[in-house]
Amino acid sequence: MASHAQVSVTAVSKVINNAYGVSPAMRNKVRTAIDELGYRPQAVARGMRGRTFTIGLVLPHIRNPFFADILDGLTTHLDTTDYQAFMIQGGATRPVEHRAVDALLSRQVDGLIMVAPLASKNRLEHIAQDKPLVVLARHERSPHYDSVLADDEAGAELAVAHLLQLGHRRIAHITHQDDSLARPADLLHTIRAATYQRLMREHGLAGHIAIATSYYNEQGGYDGARELLARTPRPTAIFAGADQAALGALAAAHDAGLTVPGGLSVAGYDNTHLAALPNIALTSIDQDGHEMGRAAGKLLLERIEGRRTPVRFTVTPTLIVRASTAAPPAP
Amino acid sequence: MASHAQVSVTAVSKVINNAYGVSPAMRNKVRTAIDELGYRPQAVARGMRGRTFTIGLVLPHIRNPFFADILDGLTTHLDTTDYQAFMIQGGATRPVEHRAVDALLSRQVDGLIMVAPLASKNRLEHIAQDKPLVVLARHERSPHYDSVLADDEAGAELAVAHLLQLGHRRIAHITHQDDSLARPADLLHTIRAATYQRLMREHGLAGHIAIATSYYNEQGGYDGARELLARTPRPTAIFAGADQAALGALAAAHDAGLTVPGGLSVAGYDNTHLAALPNIALTSIDQDGHEMGRAAGKLLLERIEGRRTPVRFTVTPTLIVRASTAAPPAP
């Protein structure tokens, strides 16, 4: 094909990957040749260093709408290229995740994006030796793969500071547990929980620290909130580390006969579509999953093209105030 | 490997696929040989009629939690086998879906499950000539692929009959549109809308038929409900064809200052996890997505094993009454 268009294989590759450094004229020339020849990515792939034009996306599960935001962002970027994303559910345990990654690698994808993986840093670096890799939502630094993450410390600070500013003192937190082999300090849920504790201490509220350890999903939030609301004195605000858990906390408040925000303030994290529904109206932390997914796709394709310098792309979260948080009830 | 275990390739294949007709003793023998040899599915695959032990799952998108139920059911079944599912987002248009299917086929999956595909029946039969295929949530009959579906007419009847029984007469409906090439009568949303109209006519309420055509998602439900609630006289109940749309309808009711169910009853379809949250408490139709996903996995593996007789697996839906529906307000 490259000879038909009178351009180099590198230029064809750049056009296909929508890379920089290709003039509009060259892009048209290559695209025209592609159209004339009834080009199919698979066919070209065989000629171009064995490339398959597929990337693998490992998600813990698909139930969290925040992951749908990430996928939408990734798809938005890939739609400008000839790449396709295959998703695989990494599941809740390391053996399942391990098997999922092996399956993708044996199907010879050109690169991998792993969202909040459970694997150790060593394992991730091992994968990165085999394939270009971008890791989402983990905080460690590696010379072998790219990272896309949000500043979870800044995000948790925004949430807790918002509740403090409203006058809350008995602020509780719902966190997550899994069998990740990452260093705790590199895990987003550990960072959010540690930041919550730090702010409470800094405001002389160490005695009011109350953490329920469950899961970042509806049931986890429901169970965690029930545990927290059974304490005496009862918290006046709950900061859930994820919107999914906050939805469960809202349900637990409802079951306990507490109005939100009159009897209990609830804040989440992720600013999912559900948080924005006016009858849920959840105060949340936005970390722009769409942009994170877009960035991950862009970085991975750059790596596939040959970049070796590790890149770290960090989103700064923002606070979205809605009707689920207000001043605490009068004592 | 088969020679090491002193068993036939067919027996190994049956154990790997968790098929019937294998004695526990044989299963142990094969499993032991697999463990001793450090067996990897990929390695076996090359020896066994080119099998890859991966199947492709084409979903319209991952944002609908009902699809997560389907995936959970599928995964539950595959976890008893050596198969893995690769997902790919079929998207909102036929060209995107076409490209997604091509990508899966060129990566040589052993079979395909397509959920609510937009493709024509001809195209599906064309795919089925190439690969074992199971189609979810479409109603046409084909001699070339298996179907897993719910009885959408029965489900819609349950929802509308429930609202009629509560005393509603001005019942409106929110339906879905896409660029599917299926016969309208084979599409679940067309069936649900037609059943709604039939029941209204049968109860002498043809004059109260009111349908908003938007999308089965939150924004679609919100827009549809706003359109319906602007009519004079206003409907006292809305039957949304999917829970995702019902969530949007609840939000629209909230914005219009209507309490649910006091001012407006809302019923959904799919009985997603969100419908069950006590502060949403949405009356809905359960069609057991988990069981549909499990059945699809089982049928596909049987087809991969050689079954050619087409199978049709139909779930009978049930009505789940919650707090979002009640008698209409006094006139």
Automatic annotation (TrEMBL), chains A, B:
Keywords: DNA-binding, Repressor, Transcription, Transcription regulation
One term of GO molecular function: transcription cis-regulatory region binding
Segment forming the signal sequence: none
SUPFAM superfamilies reported in the protein's UniProt record: lambda repressor-like DNA-binding domains, Periplasmic binding protein-like I
Name under which the protein is recorded: LacI family transcriptional regulator
Superkingdom of the organism of origin: Bacteria
InterPro entries per UniProt: HTH_LacI (IPR000843), LacI/GalR-like_sensor (IPR046335), Lambda_DNA-bd_dom_sf (IPR010982), Peripla_BP_I (IPR028082)
HTH lacI-type domain sequence ranges: 1-50
Xref: Pfam families: LacI, Peripla_BP_3
